[in-house]
Amino acid sequence: MRVITYLGFTLLSILIQFSVMDYIQDNLKLEEEQTDINVTSRKKRYDDMFKSIKQTPHALYYRTHLNKDSLKVSQSMKSYSNLSVPETEMSTMITNSIIDEFYYENISTTEDAFTTETLYSTTEIDNVTEITFYNKKNKTTLQPYVPKENLENKNCGCDLLYRVCDISCCCDNDCSEKDKKLFVNCNDISSHHVEESQYACFEAHGFEVSQREDEINLYDNLFCIVKNNVPSKINLNSKWPDFNAADKAYKWHKTDTSRNTEFERKPYVYGDTIWVLKEGSIWYIDMPSPTVNNYCSGRRPILFLKEENIECTVLLKDLEMFQIFRTSQESHCISVTEQSLNSSVLNCSTLHCTNWSIVICDEDGSKCNYYNKTVHEPSCNESYCVNIALQLEYIFYYYDSKITNVTIKLFVKNVANHIPFMTQVVNVRFIMANVSIDEIIRISGNPGYLYGLPVISSAAESNHTAQFFNNTYRQKRYLTQLDNIDGLCVSYNKTVNFVDFGINKRIKCRYIHSKTDWLKLNSTDACEDIENQIKQLSGLTEKIYVSALGNPADNKEKDWILITSNIQEKDVTYGQFLANNSRLRCNNFIVRISYVFTFADVSEVVTKREYKIIAVNTEVATHNVTISAEDVSTVLTIDTNFVDGTKPKEYEYAGGPHLNIYLPKDFFFPFPSDANCTNKLSVPLMTLCFTIYYQIK
Amino acid sequence: MSKVTNVNSSLAYEILLYLNSFYLGMFFVCEVAMGILKAINVSYPENALITEAGIFSALCLVEVIRIFLGRRGNLASKKIPVFFSVILTIPSAVGVCYFLIYQTYILRLEYIWCAVMLMFHALELAFAILFIFTVCKNQQFE
């Protein structure tokens, strides 16, 4: 073959390939034209970060002598004079590619709606819109009362907030039509979490998941993944392509930062930049983000209804918390109202302004207080800094077409002074309700459990469902277990170490016995005393029930499963003192506690998984341990295992077939001793051999 | 003086190999581009991408040798190169089947590409066997 011809044809094939790429690029251009807003030219940074907290000798001054340049507030900004706000066009909306949700409306559940199992008292229904809704239902079904969890919501896998509209969940009945109009993407989380065969298609900004097979046109979807052979262990990741990783790549992705950075007088819609009013000018609010590596070197706007979870490395002086103090003092978060649509002046009298609420929480978020400068101001000494927030959370409350509250939770801790870099976590969350985030009840699936969401539990004797939805018992809604904090075991009811459905894990921690009078006891009593403390610490002494379904709304009493234990079956613990009472040997002592959750998929539709917990057992394992009198401690292991009850314990592979074939004894002897046989067999055998020989030759 | 020769070259086999050589070029370029696209956008299990790249390189190498031997044998009316070309069809088809069935993410477009490639293999195999029979049949003994 001529080399030139080959080369020419290869070039032709490349050309064909590029024409395909052009098609993709055209799609990209379409979107780019629509978002023709230049962001970078509008970016500016401030260097007067510490102006407001300058009065007291500040820790960071101690360290840095206030390097002003390094403490930037990168708020961004197009500024408008109050009197000359230009009339902006309500122009083309940015068309994001829509992820088609595929939840199935199971018609058969209609019958369920007509059953009147009222689990809640009518006083629990407190939402006006819901009352209207129920009235409609009552008219059609002639039922006096239908609870909130009606037929549509039973199949709405993304409805995970009780009586609160879930963002981007279009089947959530708690969302008004007005709310649903805000959503660009409708996600049914349950489908994404469990769908085995994904139909991910290459779109302008990567592979988009979730087109249904029957909706795929052959010619339009050549770039769709029709099958993946990813091992089941990492299926969850593959279903959610890492768009952040794609954003770091060279092309074929869309940067969201390039849009909506120009203030428009229109109500917020999904993906809009959130605006603040500062000294008469309008700015957008942004947050740190990693760009080329894990360092927080860039910033990007916080977008409306787009929840974020950013983790990046930063120097102590560049922590986001310092910017937040400044921002919260000088600016107000704004929402466009009807009044501001017609007004030429934009200020808090025409716009809806919201103040920032800064809340200081301890590391695990269990205790929170409003920020008080005198108490909570960060400071450093020679060895460590106090009140440093490495984790912070923006919570935007949106209700009645405006942002009603912005709460920033700073999870503070003490940080060693010598650590050069630290990892900061910034979360952004949106709540479409008029209630505090702490009041909102989160369920763990609808109706079955979803992977990774906490297992719902109840410590009540009865009426578990009512207690779950009762806000006074909110601390004990989810099953917690012993936690390892700094290597030590922390009691299950003092931690937020939730047992997440489907996630197997092992925790090892050291239990330190605090009682000192155990030496007065005899050896066996001392061992039992320590063991009883361990039982209490891990909750083995309590009666705890677990909800069979992720949405306990329809749970009957039998759907609350008591956690059983084999602790009664274990051998009796006994002890003996060794080496002049300096050591205690405990035999049959609890060293391992394992929770075994048996679950099953009870869905009728193959594509939708509804995991139901069938049984929960606690199994304790014992060992002989020796405890020193000086250090009365022992290592505990806590295992959590989720077992699919519908699958066999182990697969038994079929063995190879057993062929019972025996060759005749004289097979390799063409001329047996028997003369009669010789005459009969020799002729055909000889003929066969010669034939083969000549054929080969 | 002149040596007795028989022209046993199969035209159909030659056409198939000729087309296949160009198709291989396109297949190679498209698969590489698709591999880059997938590597950027979807997460691969550990080592899967390297494994697939290795298999793909081996496949391309085998294909080039196969087509080369097939064409050479066909044009020179020699059965030995064609025989080896037939042998090489097996690993080549296995490699294509891997990309058709077992690779980590299979795009719809790859289904089409691999199916066409397998079609080439099947047809070439048939014509190659026919060619070998023809050569054996018409062998001249001097």
UniProtKB/TrEMBL annotation, chain A:
<comment type="similarity">
    <text>Belongs to the tectonic family.</text>
</comment>
<keyword id="KW-0732">Signal</keyword>
<dbReference type="InterPro" id="IPR057724">
    <property type="entry name" value="TCTN1-3_N"/>
</dbReference>
<keyword id="KW-0325">Glycoprotein</keyword>
<protein>
    <recommendedName>
        <fullName>Tectonic domain-containing protein</fullName>
    </recommendedName>
</protein>
<keyword id="KW-0970">Cilium biogenesis/degradation</keyword>
<feature type="domain" description="Tectonic-1-3 N-terminal">
    <location>
        <begin position="137"/>
        <end position="234"/>
    </location>
</feature>
<dbReference type="InterPro" id="IPR011677">
    <property type="entry name" value="TCTN1-3_dom"/>
</dbReference>
<dbReference type="Pfam" id="PF25752">
    <property type="entry name" value="DUF1619_N"/>
</dbReference>
<dbReference type="InterPro" id="IPR040354">
    <property type="entry name" value="TCTN1-3"/>
</dbReference>
<dbReference type="Pfam" id="PF07773">
    <property type="entry name" value="TCTN_DUF1619"/>
</dbReference>
<feature type="domain" description="Tectonic-1-3">
    <location>
        <begin position="448"/>
        <end position="641"/>
    </location>
</feature>
<feature type="signal peptide">
    <location>
        <begin position="1"/>
        <end position="21"/>
    </location>
</feature>
<feature type="domain" description="Tectonic-1-3">
    <location>
        <begin position="268"/>
        <end position="431"/>
    </location>
</feature>
TrEMBL record, chain B:
<protein>
    <recommendedName>
        <fullName>Transmembrane protein 216</fullName>
    </recommendedName>
</protein>
<keyword id="KW-0472">Membrane</keyword>
<feature type="transmembrane region" description="Helical">
    <location>
        <begin position="49"/>
        <end position="69"/>
    </location>
</feature>
<keyword id="KW-0812">Transmembrane</keyword>
<dbReference type="InterPro" id="IPR019184">
    <property type="entry name" value="Uncharacterised_TM-17"/>
</dbReference>
<feature type="transmembrane region" description="Helical">
    <location>
        <begin position="111"/>
        <end position="136"/>
    </location>
</feature>
<feature type="transmembrane region" description="Helical">
    <location>
        <begin position="81"/>
        <end position="105"/>
    </location>
</feature>
<feature type="transmembrane region" description="Helical">
    <location>
        <begin position="12"/>
        <end position="37"/>
    </location>
</feature>
<dbReference type="Pfam" id="PF09799">
    <property type="entry name" value="Transmemb_17"/>
</dbReference>
<keyword id="KW-1133">Transmembrane helix</keyword>
